């Protein structure tokens, strides 16, 4: 049949819309008298057949066909066999499907000494002219023996002369329905899809093209394994015989490739296209072509002449089984390559499509995308994260951060100087990444190397070759920022201390100031408060001398000074400084959402410590506006800001609501970033909520997990690590594990004693000791420790006020009066 042009398709649409609501016999009469060309008439006829559901097994699939009530027979218009009727060696149990070629029954083998149920497919009485198509399906199935394909069990001729075939009966759900019913995540969907590809690749290897891939022909069995069904309109690749138009009409338009709709020869590429449509629907939850009230001809015209919407954009328009951000990029490219209108531009094989999916899951570059440097390096870094950190965010922070200050006027001297600085930073990034990629590629054990190990190796090798120039300082700054993005404060601190000791950047005051500013940040992160002031005092005059050039650096100096004031008892001053800095932070971090959200995070932490709980919602609103604008809901910073909502609720004595929030945050952070400092703090807040709810065993479990994580990613002496240990002691004691509580006390006491001055860690630790002594029955000692803890909390002012709320209940358990407070 000759291919149709645009005008022909418009004629098809008009003719179809005139006939679609008429009975089949009237449709045939009108078509016989239609003045249009034979091609238009035949295409309209095929579409009318499709609209009536005359595709292969377009009735309910086996898993969805309900059993007939006891004592009832199949409806007369459903099938020609009644329950109990024998065909060959099989006894019919009930009908389960009907299509344009055959009727299908659930049957069991008669007289067998084992239980074997089959799907018995019998040529329909009114489809005698299609007997050759039925025979072809039997020949195709006879070639195939694969665990992912419903196999041929037997074949023969019924007493009335009609051929039948008996196939594996698959008791399951269509792949899309199964994924919905089981809440399947992205990896589960992709794994199922690759298994389908494996089965279809086997069929192709046996020269069989399926030609009707769609969800209802892929059932997921009780074991969660996909099984490919229905080769009713399949074709042998080595069979040159033309298929009749009636067979072509039985294809499903939603999944049919353009060449199928045009009546051209079906090839392996035809199945690749249908798999692309299937993948589109599995990840986005939407059809690429069927939307709203679009008629079948309109849908087909779109298939032939338009490109589908990106699946990520389709997912973003409504409820989708997979977040749009997880689809954007690789999966968009993979789906669209599989669905290209020109068969020669699709994947060369089903195996190539499956391989690209596997590469995406392994964080390797996919063949569907171009090999740009940024993309290749991004995939390389993500491949080696091993759940440690968001290395895609690492690369983004490096590449985007380099341009995050380019907000000034394009023709000013300031902008020209910034461009030079950005070029230097980019050169440092390229040098560092080149060494990282090269050295790891040369490592025979690179598949087992973590990002942390890669970074340590790179820093060690580069540090040995550094001089004291400003270029070396740029490289140190770049490596430092990588460590920070990986939440490895200890690694960042070791690097910056080594660089300063070697005199890196010695001849350039600006380079030295950049290093000193980062040394202050690392010292603050590790609790070495006494080192923050000297470092920022040395750096700030350099930046203050030219504020137009160093607006970003002055924001960072303000953040460091606010941290210093917070640590030295000037919490209210720290909050006021951050609030004054927010307008500049919004400008200089406009293209660097990570640092902007970190600024909001710090302010919210300080406000929580100061019990400025009523003022926090306004800051949450500003932060969440940034999160929505930049799509950072699942980023480290986005999750931490959500966690702070739970902290506020804990201070407001709403532990149940806090538990719900932080449970979700911890699960999402674990799935995205794995073990990290952020997850340790999430678990700390979850443990606090569960302690408040009396869920002591649950609190003990999460705090026991959090403690070594915090020690690894923050340090054993960091305040969060010590507070987690104190919470664990309390959970162990309250859950009856006194021996465990005493061990944790003995391990933590030396670290507490080494702290330079009293603070919250000592107060929380003292309260935990009091609870342990109480649970041991040592009431006098418990009272003394309770009084000591209360005094320490009172000394903390606003920061300790929320903790003091628990003391009346504790004193009641000790049998003392409130006058002891």
- Low-confidence segments, given as residue ranges, are 53-78, 237-250, 371-377, 384-449, 817-821
Molecular shape: elongated
Radius of gyration: 34 Å
Structural class of the secondary structure composition? alpha+beta
**How many strand units?**
11
Beta-strand share of residues: 5-15%
**CATH C-level label of one domain:** Mainly Alpha
**Proportion in helices:** 55-70%
**Strand numbers in spatial order across the main sheet:** 1-2-3-4-6-5
CATH architecture of one domain: Orthogonal Bundle
- What is the fold named in CATH at topology level of one domain? Transferase(Phosphotransferase), domain 1
Distance between the termini: 95 Å
Summed up, the helix count is 36
Pfam family, one: Pkinase
InterPro entries: Kinase-like_dom_sf, Prot_kinase_dom, Ser/Thr_kinase_AS, TPR-like_helical_dom_sf
GO molecular function: ATP binding; protein serine/threonine kinase activity
EC number: 2.7.11.1
């Amino acid at each position: 049949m000759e291919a149709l042009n645009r005008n022909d398709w418009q004629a098809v649409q008009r003719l179809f819309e005139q006939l679609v609501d008429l009975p089949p016999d009237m449709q045939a009469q009108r078509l016989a008298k239609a003045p249009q060309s034979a091609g238009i008439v035949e295409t309209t006829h095929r579409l009318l057949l499709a609209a009536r559901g005359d595709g292969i097994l377009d009735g309910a699939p086996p898993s969805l066909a309900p059993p007939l009530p006891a004592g009832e027979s199949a409806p007369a218009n459903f099938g020609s066999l009644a329950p109990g009727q024998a065909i060959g060696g099989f006894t019919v149990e009930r009908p389960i499907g009907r299509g344009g070629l055959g009727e299908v029954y659930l049957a069991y083998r008669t007289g067998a000494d084992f239980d074997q149920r089959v799907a018995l497919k019998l040529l329909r009485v009114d489809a005698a002219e299609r007997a050759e198509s039925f025979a072809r399906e039997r020949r195709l199935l006879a070639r195939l023996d694969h665990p992912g394909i419903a196999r041929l069990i037997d074949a023969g001729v019924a007493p009335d002369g009609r051929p039948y075939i008996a196939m594996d009966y698959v008791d399951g759900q269509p792949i899309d329905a199964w994924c919905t019913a089981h809440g399947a995540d992205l990896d589960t969907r992709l794994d199922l899809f690759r298994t389908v590809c494996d089965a279809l690749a086997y069929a192709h290897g046996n020269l069989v093209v399926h030609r009707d891939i769609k969800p209802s022909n892929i059932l997921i069995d009780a074991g969660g394994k996909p099984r490919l069904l229905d080769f009713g309109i399949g074709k042998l690749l080595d069979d040159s015989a033309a298929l009749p138009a009636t067979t072509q009409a039985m294809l499903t338009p939603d999944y049919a490739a353009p060449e199928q709709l045009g009546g051209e020869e079906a090839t392996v590429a035809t199945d690749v296209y249908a798999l692309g449509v299937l993948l589109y629907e599995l990840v986005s939850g939407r059809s690429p072509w069927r939307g709203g009230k679009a008629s079948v001809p309109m849908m087909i015209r779109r298939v032939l002449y338009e490109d589908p919407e990106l699946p990520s954009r389709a997912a973003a328009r409504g409820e989708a089984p997979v977040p749009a951000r997880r689809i954007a990029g690789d999966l968009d490219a993979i789906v669209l390559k599989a669905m290209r209108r020109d068969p020669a531009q699709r994947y060369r094989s089903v195996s190539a499509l499956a391989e690209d999916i596997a590469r995406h899951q392994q964080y390797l570059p996919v063949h569907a995308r171009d090999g740009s440097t940024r993309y290749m390096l991004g995939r390389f870094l993500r491949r080696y994260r091993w759940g440690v950190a968001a290395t895609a965010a690492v690369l983004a922070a490096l590449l985007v951060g380099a341009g995050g200050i380019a907000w000034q006027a394009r023709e000013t001297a300031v902008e020209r100087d910034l461009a030079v600085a950005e070029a230097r930073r980019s050169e440092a990034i390229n040098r560092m990444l080149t060494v990282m990629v090269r050295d790891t590629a040369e490592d025979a054990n690179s598949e087992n190397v973590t990002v942390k190990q890669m970074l340590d190796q790179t820093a060690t090798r580069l540090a040995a070759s550094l001089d004291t120039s400003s270029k070396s300082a740029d490289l140190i700054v770049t490596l430092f920022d990588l460590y920070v993005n990986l939440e490895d404060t200890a690694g960042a601190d070791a690097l910056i201390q080594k660089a300063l000791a070697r005199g890196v950047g010695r001849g350039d005051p600006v380079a030295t100031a950049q290093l000193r500013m980062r040394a202050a940040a690392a010292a603050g992160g590790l609790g070495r408060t006494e080192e923050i002031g000297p470092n920022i005092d040395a750096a700030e005059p350099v930046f203050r001398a030219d504020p137009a050039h160093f607006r970003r650096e002055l924001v960072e100096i303000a953040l460091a000074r606010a941290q210093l004031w917070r640590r030295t008892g000037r919490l209210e001053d720290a909050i006021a400084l951050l609030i004054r800095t927010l307008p500049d932070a919004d400008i200089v971090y406009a293209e660097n959402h990570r640092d902007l959200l970190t600024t909001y995070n710090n302010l919210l932490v300080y406000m929580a410590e100061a019990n400025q709980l009523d003022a926090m919602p306004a800051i949450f609103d500003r932060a969440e506006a940034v999160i929505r604008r930049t799509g950072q809901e699942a980023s480290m910073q986005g999750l931490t800001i959500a966690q702070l909502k739970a902290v506020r609720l804990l201070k407001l004595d709403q532990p149940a609501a806090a538990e719900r929030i932080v449970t979700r945050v911890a699960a999402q952070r674990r799935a995205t970033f794995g073990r990290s400092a952020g997850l340790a703090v999430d678990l700390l807040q979850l443990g606090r909520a569960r302690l408040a709810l009396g869920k002591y065993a649950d609190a003990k479990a999460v705090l026991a997990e959090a403690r070594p994580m915090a020690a690894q990613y923050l340090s054993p002496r960091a305040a969060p690590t010590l507070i987690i240990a104190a919470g664990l002691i309390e959970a162990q004691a309250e859950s009856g594990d006194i021996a465990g509580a005493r061990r944790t006390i003995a391990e933590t006491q030396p670290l507490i004693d080494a702290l330079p001055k009293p603070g919250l860690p000592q107060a929380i630790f003292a309260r935990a000791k009091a609870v342990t002594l109480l649970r041991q029955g040592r009431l006098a000692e418990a009272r003394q420790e309770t009084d000591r803890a209360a005094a320490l909390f009172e000394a903390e002012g606003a920061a300790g006020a929320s903790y003091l709320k628990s003391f009346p209940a504790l004193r009641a358990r000790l049998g003392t009066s409130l006058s002891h407070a």
